[in-house]
């Protein structure tokens, strides 16, 4: 059962992320990304990270990407990207694909030599996450709250119109 | 049980796809989307690591990554809006002001 | 007392030179008087030393030395001092005596010249430098004054510096003697090296002479050292091949030529040979070279005098020839004969030069053919003897002395040298005898053309020129005094003064008439009479009348092409080297290296600039490639 879920959701994730980078229309690419994130949520659940999975749906897919959608809408619905082969020079396209594949192969080799041993499984429920968050990770927590505040300020300062 | 390395492989593939998107997309917003893909792949890696070691720290870190991604998206989109206002297009090929 | 006087004699001309330069540049009359007075005082002081020194000699002391320590360099200590012996006394008499006469002559000869004061300042400075050479007591000090003499000579030859030929001649003199000086300092340095190795702490003559036998310097090096120092002599005393500067040096005023190029500066070389003879004694090969150089120079210069038309140039070549005789004498280890001839030659050569000065002053020309033409036009063959009696008769005396006619002084000194030559190799003696003939010939030519000129058919009478007359008492008196010295000079006890050790009896002086004397007398008479006969009625040069003489005449005219060769080889060679160096520097160093580095940097920058495309994806691509590379490097062990 677990295996089926795993293979299905990972396939879905991969396919939809491929679609993200290939689809010409931005809105459709965005929707593919939402599907990718949903697939990843399933994978998180399989690994036992309940809290993070839910947070991903609520925060990431639900808020961040919707925000993205708003800005994409600003472009107008007629906006679309060129087909792949026309975007850049073929040389560039080929070499970047090759570079990425090279990177992937290295990564794969590293993984290949990796022998993890027994998987212990983590407690992913809210209580243990909360305990870790507010004891070991207290400082980063506070800092990220400041970070969010600052990003709000920055966004407002950047994007406001001058004639106010 | 699915061996852990499978998760890592998936994460790697997703990351590479995101990377490709970063390199081969001409619309600035879609480049930012590709960056989101990469961040998600990294998150998957963290979660897998947390499951491996039985340490919740990995999940907390993944959480923080999400927070940071949110902040980054905010500002990135603000910049994209500014750019769109200035040039009425978000084509990355037209923002080569640092050329030379 | 002697040594104090020596220091004073050395300082007097320096004092007058400084005083004239500082205060009297605008008062020519005062400058002339001060200069002459200074020299006269020095001469008087020198004369007063004669009885003192002879007294010391009889007591057995021959050398006096007074030395101030000057520099200390490691084990070597350099002094500044005065070295007085018989040789010093003789040279002092010559320099101060003839110096005084030349100063006196110059007061009249240079009258009206705008640079009058400067002239006397330079002349005094020259005398100071020359006395410095004579009185120096160590090798470095003598070299210092050697160079100062070269400088003074440059100042005096180029005295009329507005004339381009004078400047060129001064430069030529300085540079040619410089070549000699280079050899000299190398020789001195070589000797210093050996002295230092042998722990001799000083370069004083006495110390070196004492240390030399025990140092056992190898023959090869000794010869090199001796030849190095001899090279300085060759330069200063105008021997072949560095003789080329002396004839050109006639661009200076005539009294300068009398003092410097007849009596004193050129004699400095001979003096040096005698002073450090112990160095040359140690190398027989060097002595051979010296003797032959002297002989060849004597012959060469005499041959060149045959074709000159400028009276000063004839006398200049004559000086070179006589110097050759002196050098030859020293090369044959007969220092006495050389110095004796130096002294006698100083008398009659100065006389001849001053006489020439008087003639130039009267005729306003230096060409002997022109002088003869004018004499003939103004009053016939013997007119000059009537118009300028003092000059004519003293000139005759000087000529006879130069040819070596007894009982004039020149006879005795020349005999001594010829006697020394007769005891050496035959070719050398032959050269010496032939030179006697040639000397008489060119003297006869000179005398006949100027004083006994032939009748010119188209002689025009230049009525606008001044009538010929003597130059006044200041000019005539030195001539007379020098004439007297030329006649009776041989009776001066020069040889006694020069003695360095007590002499039980004199070596047999060649005062008598032996076969050698007869031979030389015959040669001289033949030369003079032949010349007189050939030129008695001649109105144009011999070369133009006798076709056979045209080619050799041309060679002589071009001075055996010495100047051309030097110019081609040395100037040309140096020019070429300079051009190569210029090209090398311009291309290799500037163009390729300096500019090239600039070009490379710039093109590198231009190429690297292309990386900045401004396109984000490109930067991203580069990052990916870079990260992959780093990943590879760091994970290499694991894969």
Condensed summary:
The complex is a heterotrimer of chains A (164), B (100) and C (639). By secondary structure, chain B is mostly helical.
Defining key terms:
heterotrimer; A: 164 residues; mainly alpha; 7 helices; 78% helix; globular; C: 639 residues; two-stranded antiparallel sheet; 2 strands
Which chains make the largest contact? A-B, 80 and 69 residues
Question: Over the alpha carbons, how many angstroms does the gyration radius of chain B reach?
Answer: 17 Å
Regarding quaternary structure, how should these chains be classified?
A: heterotrimer
Secondary-structure element order of chain A, N to C:
HHHHHHH
CATH architectural category of chain B: Orthogonal Bundle
Strand tally of chain B is 0
What is the approximate shape of chain A? globular
Rg of chain A, alpha carbons: 20 Å
Number of discrete domains of chain B: 1
Counting helices, strands and paired strands, the structural category of chain B is: mainly alpha
Name the beta content range of chain A.
under 5%
Instruction: Summarize the main sheet of chain B.
Output: none
Q: Report the uncertain regions of chain A.
A: none
Please provide a written account of the structure:
- The complex is a heterotrimer of chains A (164), B (100) and C (639).
- Chain A has 164 residues and is mostly helical.
- Chain A is built from seven helices and no strands.
- Chain A has helices at residues 2-22, 26-47, 50-75, 84-87, 90-112, 126-135, 138-159.
- In chain A, helix 1 (2-22) runs antiparallel to helix 2 (26-47) and helix 2 (26-47) packs antiparallel against helix 3 (50-75).
- Chain A starts with a helix and ends in a 5-residue tail after the last helix.
- The model of chain A has no long low-confidence stretch (mean pLDDT 86).
- Helices cover 78% and strands 0% of the residues of chain B.
- Chain C is built from 27 helices and two strands.
- Chains in contact: A-B, A-C, B-C.
- At the A-B interface, helix 1, helix 2, helix 3, helix 5 and helix 6 of A face helix 1, helix 2 and helix 3 of B.
